[in-house]
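Quick illustration for those who missed Monday's session on complexes.
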Amino acid sequence: MVVKASILNVLEYDFCIGCGACTYPQNSPFEIVETEIGTFKAKLKESVSSNDFEDYSLICPFSNESANEDQIGQLLFSQIEGIKQHSKTGYYLDLYAGHVSIEGFRERGSSGGSVSWLIDTLFKLNEIDHVVHVKESNTGNLFEYMISSSSDEARTAAKSKYYPISLADILPIIRDLEGKTLFIGIPCFIKSLRLLSSQYPEISNRIKYTAGLVCGHLKSKFFAYNFAWQLDILPKEITKIDFRHSKPNQSKASLYYVKVNALKNNLPIEKVGLNKSFFGFQWGQGFFKYKACDYCDDVFAETADICFGDAWIKPYVSDPKGDNIVITRNKRLSEIVEDSVKKGDLKFDNVSLEEILKSQDAGLRHRREGTQVRTSVLIKKGLWFPQKRQFEDTMSSTRNQKRIYLFREWMSRQSEVHFKKAIELRDYGYFKRRMRWIVFYYENILYKTKWNKLKRLLRIN
Ligand SMILES: Cc1cc2nc3c(=O)[nH]c(=O)nc-3n(C[C@H](O)[C@H](O)[C@H](O)COP(=O)(O)OP(=O)(O)OC[C@H]3O[C@@H](n4cnc5c(N)ncnc54)[C@H](O)[C@@H]3O)c2cc1C
Ligand code: SF4
Ligand code: SF4
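Prediction with iron/sulfur cluster bound:
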């Protein structure tokens, strides 16, 4: 029996995240295309006749033949003196929460500005010549992977981009770069880069450091369109979007704004709205989420040398200016962080592993426990799925929690279908009417949000 290389199953069953790693090998049969729901996905080129796909499975983060995060982490980090490991974070040296004290970084950044600080510091210390990260673009996509070769060039890239991206076009450029490079990415993209590096020395030779962003999930282009449309801006009119806009009068780090720039009737306009005032903003509802994200168990970029996230824990969460959580897995980067803490450039506190885990509590539950629940359904249906790591501490969900995990995935699919239809009909109301009842069921029947609020109120009074 010929066993099908599992990268083909990744495509057939829609587990592709569009990273573009499979397009890198010479004469690759894969290309990255934009789908009708605003995601990037790999596709087999029409001219392909070969069926020799095994090598491609080795570099795909969702295939069953590629190394998993534990195996990659062990190779990269297990020999580092003093390093520890936890099933939820992967390897770690030092754990911090805090922000950059040097003026400008925190103001420009999504949370504490620490990623931009790292880039700036590595340039200043001559540790890197380039950084590969996601910046604003005007090539038809609002954002894409680009290279900055100085602090000044990199500065404009701050803020999180909840928008589809791919490495397909940048990988040949990385290969031809001269000098040392820092690569920034969400966990699955760092994993793709590590898998590629294991097969292609010309890639691994270029990358000196990798910095990962904690990741809840990735959004399709519809996420940006959904904000814009509620601000009376049509998808084709958007010129810029800031998903994490902050204002001086902001009361909490989690209450940030979304700013959209557009060209309407040939006139430039700018509109801003508070995140929670938008329909479909809530991350737990998972609107426009890639399917792959519901089958991914890496929250803390376990294969990156350093990882940054939002400090959604007390006391940091009450500071409207924003703070990071940080995990280091590289001695030199740990040293650089420590020196900067001593100099006062960073206001970082050492925090416990429990605090780090607490900061991503909901995400970890959905991605660890939730993934097991979701895959158990696929097993029962006899469908293919990407094999995930087994975690002993993740099978305690109640029946209602299991329903929530499954419902969220279904809700994501519904959001794509109805938003696509709304675009065709040029009627945002269509989308809202269709999704409103789904959200109502999720919030009030499954989650019992209003009932729980009432119970809390009664207890207080
Ligand atoms: C899709 C996505 C989901 C996330 N989910 C969570 C979450 O659930 N919980 C959590 O705590 N944090 C999450 N984060 C991380 C968080 O939003 C911040 O990016 C992180 O805390 C760093 O903030 P900062 O102020 O230090 O970074 P900044 O100083 O603002 O710098 C951000 C840097 O990251 C780069 N960048 C931005 N977006 C991307 C991208 N998509 N791919 C690669 N590089 C990028 C920029 O180019 C810039 O260099 C997510 C980020 C993304 C992009
Ligand atoms: S996840 Fe990445 S490597 Fe795998 S098929 Fe998709 S684009 Fe290719
Ligand atoms: S949740 Fe996982 S698969 Fe989805 S974007 Fe984040 S790291 Fe990638």
